[in-house]
Amino acid sequence: MQAEALGAIPADVLQSTQPVLLPGLVVHWPLVQAARRSDADFCDYLRAFDSGQRLMTWRGSPAIGGRFFYNDDFSGFNFAREGHTLGAVLDELLAGSADAVYMGSTAIDGACPALRQHNDLPALAGFNPLVSLWLGNRIRVATHFDLPDNIACVVAGRRRFTLFPPDQVANLYIGPLDLTPAGQPVSLVDQARPDLARFPRYAEALRHAQVFDLEPGDALFLPSQWWHGVESLDPVSGLVNFWWRQSPPFMDTPLNTLMMALLTLRDLPPAQRNAWRALFDHYVFDANGETAAHIPPGARGILDPINDHSARQLRAMLLNRLNR
Description:
The structure is a single chain. By secondary structure, this protein is α+β, with helices and mostly antiparallel strands. The protein has helices spanning 30-37, 39-47, 86-94, 108-111, 202-207, 254-264, 270-285, 308-322, and strands at residues 20-22, 55-60, 67-68, 80-84, 100-107, 130-136, 140-144, 149-156, 159-164, 210-214, 219-222, 227-232, 237-244. The protein has two domains: 13-244, Cupin (Jelly Rolls, Sandwich); 254-322, no CATH class. Helix content is 24%, strand content 23%. An eight-stranded antiparallel sheet has the order 1-11-8-13-6-5-2-4. A five-stranded mixed sheet has the order 3-7-12-9-10, with no helix packed on it. The termini are far apart.
């Protein structure tokens, strides 16, 4: 899908379950205009918003080839986490550092709130999005998914997004769930150089992949839970993204449910797993107005629609049950 409206988001985009390319969506931003003039102008523009805070930055040696990933025995990672000011990161990018340098997911409203004054998406104001800044040189971020919906706006350098629909998870060779580079599970396949001898099912994933090459000013809508790997193709690259969820704030991440299921369901005998699958289908995946209709309205408890109050009660009950 493509949309070409400059500075506006077509109405159907925000409800799409497919990725949507938005060419030139933010080309009018001063941040993008500076980048289109030169890397130096881009860095100078951003430098004016440096608050002096030390921001989380990842650094990898030239040997990793820009790919932030696990170390050889999966006991940790192939990069170090450091704290640097925005200005220091920009200086290093301009100097052409041989290291892989990556300042990721920095909340703009906390680190440099004035930046949004002229570099924003007003159409998303009603969603109260989390807005983040990403900077780096030629780097590769492993394929992962995000829980929120996301509009990713390229503001400097070129970026390549390789996207896979959620149902391709079995073909992506996902790594550990409890030790991840940035909180989300990642594919063990290098999307830029896939080893199909080691990961043969990835060939099927590639049949369903969508690849988008974005220039400064372009944006991409990524629906919740679409797997995506991102490559920065130039020595100075920048991205601003807007995250929001189509669910109430009290809803926890379903990853918690997945981990609880690993603890309580996965290793049961097959017949018991099937019995629990039927319960989950009944109460969760196939739930409708009839699921609890036979229970008097005042007695349905957590089978009623969850709200902020009942979510707090349910969370407290779960914590009490787990604390044993």
